[in-house]
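Exercise 7b. Backbone tokens:
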């Protein structure tokens, strides 16, 4: 049985984004890939925003346990999500492949 993180009430989604965002930041820091990740996220963000705005607008999903703060038509947590997810993916990728390729070339 998974723990009930709903105890954070309307801040539940925000708390999860901060936790996973911290993990992503640590991975990118470890891989010395912060600048590379930032460039990629800046390019991906507009696409993710339009996709997210559309799916929320047509009712594909509803987000419970959020702050209720919207920015540009979508929850603030979704904006954070669109930064955290690619950052986490890039952080994992760079730690698996970036660091291993450096050690193989030595």
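Sequence design result:
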């Amino acid at each position: 049985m998974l723990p009930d993180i709903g105890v954070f009430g309307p801040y539940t989604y925000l708390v999860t984004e901060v936790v996973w965002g911290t993990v992503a930041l640590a991975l990118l820091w470890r891989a010395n890939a912060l600048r590379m990740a930032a460039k990629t996220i800046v390019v991906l963000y507009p696409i993710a925003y339009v996709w997210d705005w559309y799916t929320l607008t047509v009712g594909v999903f509803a987000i419970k346990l959020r702050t209720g703060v919207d920015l540009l038509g979508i929850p603030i947590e979704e904006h954070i999500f669109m930064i955290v997810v690619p950052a986490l993916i890039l952080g994992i990728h760079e730690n698996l492949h970036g660091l291993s390729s450096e050690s193989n070339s030595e």
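Instructor comment: The longest strand covers residues 70-71. Helices lie at 12-30, 34-57, 76-104.
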